Backbone:
């Protein structure tokens, strides 16, 4: 609740839509944020219940992590999330089987905003700008740590995107573009 409202305020001012990969535990703890994301036209997607190491847990645990979050998100939003981002980007044969059963599409990222090589908001934004290409997927986090620099870097990056005649959009918006194809992996 500390960082997401700031990001949502910024996205609203800039008329940008995003995809938020959320934990089921966050849906339970802060349903008002999920409701706001949906009300403001953002997409919500599945990031498991608790951010566990899916590649290390048995089949029934993977099922609970993925389908539990899916059920909560469906109940909260009224629609089935289409996308899934595995915690830490790690999967397994078991995870792939469960995802196949759910029909979710796995989405990774092109680059992350946070990096030990970019200690300031300006350096974070510059690092992102240098990696930015049409179709890039930017990963940001809003939990646990102080994300002040990330929020500031996002504003710098979004201003750059606008100046470069790019447009930041959600996965749903991207998939609706003519000829768009989301490539798994």
Residues:
């Amino acid at each position: 609740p500390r960082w997401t409202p700031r990001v949502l305020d910024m996205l609203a001012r800039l008329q940008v839509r995003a995809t938020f990969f959320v934990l089921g535990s966050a849906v339970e703890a802060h349903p008002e944020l999920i409701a706001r994301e949906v009300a403001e036209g953002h997409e919500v997607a599945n990031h498991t219940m608790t951010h566990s190491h899916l590649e290390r847990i048995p089949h029934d645990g993977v099922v609970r992590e993925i389908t539990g979050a899916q059920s909560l998100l469906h109940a909260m939003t009224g629609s089935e999330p289409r996308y899934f981002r595995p915690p830490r980007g790690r999967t397994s044969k078991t995870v792939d089987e469960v995802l196949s059963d759910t029909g979710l599409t796995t989405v990774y990222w092109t680059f992350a905003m946070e990096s030990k090589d970019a200690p300031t908001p300006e350096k974070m934004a510059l690092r992102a700008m240098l990696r930015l290409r049409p179709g890039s997927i930017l990963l940001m986090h809003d939990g646990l740590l102080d994300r002040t620099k990330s929020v500031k870097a996002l504003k710098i990056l979004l201003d750059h995107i606008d100046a470069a005649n790019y447009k930041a959009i959600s996965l749903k918006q991207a998939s609706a573009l003519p000829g768009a194809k989301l490539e798994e992996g």
